[in-house]
Amino acid sequence: MHILVLGAAGMVGRKLVDRLLRDGRLGPTDITRLTLQDVVAPARPATDIAVEVVTGDAADAAMAARLVASKPDVIFHLAAIVSGEAEADFDKGYRINLDGTRYLIDAIRAVGGGYRPRLVFTSSIAVFGAPFPERIGDEFLSAPLTSYGTQKAIGELLISDYTRKGLFDGISIRLPTICVRPGLPNKAASGFFSNIIREPLAGKEAVLPVSDDVMHWHASPRSAVGFLIHAGTMDTGPIGPRRALSMPGLAATVGEQIAALERVAGRNVTARIRREPDPTIMGIVAGWPRDFVTARALNLGFTTAEKTFDDIIRIHIEDELGGKFVD
Amino acid sequence: MHILVLGAAGMVGRKLVDRLLRDGRLGPTDITRLTLQDVVAPARPATDIAVEVVTGDAADAAMAARLVASKPDVIFHLAAIVSGEAEADFDKGYRINLDGTRYLIDAIRAVGGGYRPRLVFTSSIAVFGAPFPERIGDEFLSAPLTSYGTQKAIGELLISDYTRKGLFDGISIRLPTICVRPGLPNKAASGFFSNIIREPLAGKEAVLPVSDDVMHWHASPRSAVGFLIHAGTMDTGPIGPRRALSMPGLAATVGEQIAALERVAGRNVTARIRREPDPTIMGIVAGWPRDFVTARALNLGFTTAEKTFDDIIRIHIEDELGGKFVD
Question: Tell me, what's the pLDDT at A186?
C-alpha cells in the first residue's frame, strides 16, 4: 500500500508518520511506500519502507499532479496554515487552505482510469461559530467566525461533493483542539490551552489569558492520530453522503485543566501558571465551541485515547517527556 | 445610485430589472445607473436611467474587474447555471457557480479605497440535503446532495467571511423553488412543480413525474424579486455574522398545488395534467427540502407576496398571462 501525507512536517503529520512506520501497516495492509510532502522538508525517517520526501508548496497545481501521479492508495491531507495566520494573511489562507485543497482534489480526479483513493481531510471545530447550543450536535450548521474555519468548511463541502460524484472516497474529520500540543507555540490563538500544561511541566512559566471557567473541546495528539488511522481504514459505506464528522473529544474548563495538572503533577507545577487576562484572546475564545455530541463519529467507530483530562496530561508526559516532568 | 445585476437575462434577473426600472429607485434612493451583465445579451430596457449592457461570461477575472471598476453601490449576483446543468457538467458548474463568485468578490476587494458595496447573492434551498427534519430551521446544517447546492453553500461561506472582514456588505438569500416559473422549461429538475400549473393554464398538457404527496417549498417570482429588493435595501446590522438566510415560502404538496389550480382555474385545466411517474426524478426529489421555519428572515423583514398556493397561481395569471388563461 502506498500512502501520501500532505503536511507531513506539521505536528500531527509527524505523529501520523511515526505511527504508520511503527505499525508498518494501515489496517490489515502492509505499507510498501510512503510519500511525505510539506513546504518545509519533512524528516526522512529510518525505515525499510520506500519513502519519498517532497518539499514544496501544496497550493500548486503541478505539485498536486506530481503527488498523485503514482496513485497513492490513501491520501492524508493535513497541509494547512493555522487559524491565526489565515486570519492575519487573508490571501495566503485562501491560497493554501482553499486553493491547495482544490488543486489536490482536481489532480486526483484528473488521474482517471478508475483511480479512486481514500482521501482523509483534516478539518476542525473552527467550522462552528457562536452562538451555538451548549453541546453541538451532528446537524448543527457550519457558521465559522474565522477565515480558517471558512476554508475548512468549504473543504468539507468539496470533499463530500467529489465523493458523491465517485471521484474519490473522501472523509473530513473535524479535529478538536489538540492538547497537549508539543513543541513551541504556533500561531494558533488556542495555544494557551496547551501552554498552561506543557510549559509548567517543563519548569517554565505559562500565561493564562482567559478566565478559569472557559470551556473547550480537547483531544490528545495520540487520539488525533487514531482518528486519522481509523478514517484511513474504516468502511466508508455507512457514513452516507455527509462526509464531514465532528470527532469525539473531551470538554474541560481551564479550571478543570489546571485541577487535573495539579492531580497529575502537583502544586509546584500549577504554581507556574500566571493569570494575565487578555481581552483580545478572551473575545476570540468566546466565539469557540465548548462541547459536542459526536454521535455519528462514535457510531462509526472513532474513539479517543483518553477518558479524563488527567489522561491527556499523562499521555503528554508519556509520549513527549519520556515519563518525566520538572517538579 | 448605481446598481449592477449579474445574470440579468435570467428569469429572476429580468423580473428584478423590470421592478427596478418600474420603481426608479431602490429603497429611498433614485437609481441613476444600471449595469446589466449576462452571458447572453440582456435586453436593453427603454428608460431614462443610464443603462450599460455587458455581454460575456461572469466566470472571468477580467470581466469581474470591469464590472466593479465603476464602483456600483449595490450588486445583485444572480449569475449561475442551474442544478441539472451543474450536475451534468461538473467543470462548468464549478467554473461558473464557484469560480465566478470568487472572481466577483475578489474583484470587489481589489477595488479598495474604502469601496464596500452591498452584495446580494442568490443562494438556494439546494444547500440542504436529506435527511432533514420535517421543517428545516435556521441552524440546520448545509449538506447538499448536488454540485449546485455545494457551490451555493460555498458561495454563502465566502460571502459571510468576506463580509466579516469588512470587504463588502454581503447577504446570501436562499430562494425557495420559484413557482410558477414562466417561459420554457429550463434544465432544473424541479421544473415540473411549475410545468403542472403553467402548461395547463396555457391549454397544454403537462407531465407530473412524482406522486401527489410530494411536498415542496415554493415562492412566486414576485416574492423572489421582493426578497432581492429587501436584501438590497435593508439595514444589515441586525443580521450578524451569519449572512445566509433561508427565505420565507409556502410548503405545498403536489396534490395541494393541483387542488389550488382547480379552485382558481377549474377542472378543464387540471385535466391537462398527465401522471407519468419517473423513478429518476422521484429519487432526486426525495432528497429535497419540504418545509422550513424561516424565523430569522421573517424577523429581518422578508415577506412573501402570497399567503396560499391559490395566490401563487393568481400571481402567475396576473403577472404573466395578462389576467387570462385557457379554460
Answer: 61
If you average pLDDT over residues A64-84, what whole number do you get?
95
Say yes or no: A88 contacts chain B, CB-CB below 8 A.
Answer: no
Contact A219, A7 (CB under 8 A): no
Q: Which CATH code fits B2-176+220-246?
A: 3.40.50.720
Question: A259: which residues sit within 8 A by CB, 6+ positions away?
Answer: none
> Quick check: B257 and B308 in contact, CB under 8 A?
no
Query: Of the candidates A154, A164, A242, which has its C-beta nearest B157's C-beta?
Result: A154
Closest by Cα among B241, B224, B81 to B171: B241
Whether residue A241 lies within 8 A of chain B, CB to CB, comes out as: yes
The angle formed by the CA atoms of residues A141, A142 and A144, to the nearest 5 degrees, is 140
Burial category of A317 from C-beta neighbours within 10 Å (exposed 0-12, middle 13-18, buried 19 and up): middle
Report, in this order, helix, strand and coil percent for chain B, each rounded to 5.
Answer: 45, 20, 40
* CB A35, CB A67: distance < 8 Å: yes
**All cell numbers assigned to A22:** 511503527
Return the domain boundaries, chain A. 2-176+220-246
- What is the ipTM score, two decimals? 0.96
d(CA A17, CA A3): 10
- Please state, rounded to an integer, the average pLDDT across all residues of chain A: 95
Cβ atoms of A197 and A205 closer than 8 Å: no
Task: Say how many residues make up chain B.
Answer: 327
Helix boundaries (H) for B126-165: 147-164
Interface of A with B in 24-63 (CB under 8 A): none
Q: Read off the pLDDT of each residue in B227-233 and give the average, rounded to a whole number.
A: 98
- Closest C-alpha to B93, from B131, B132, B124: B124
The pLDDT-based confidence of B187 (bands split at 50, 70, 90) is: low
Comparing CB atoms, the residue among A141, A145, A160 nearest residue B139 is A141
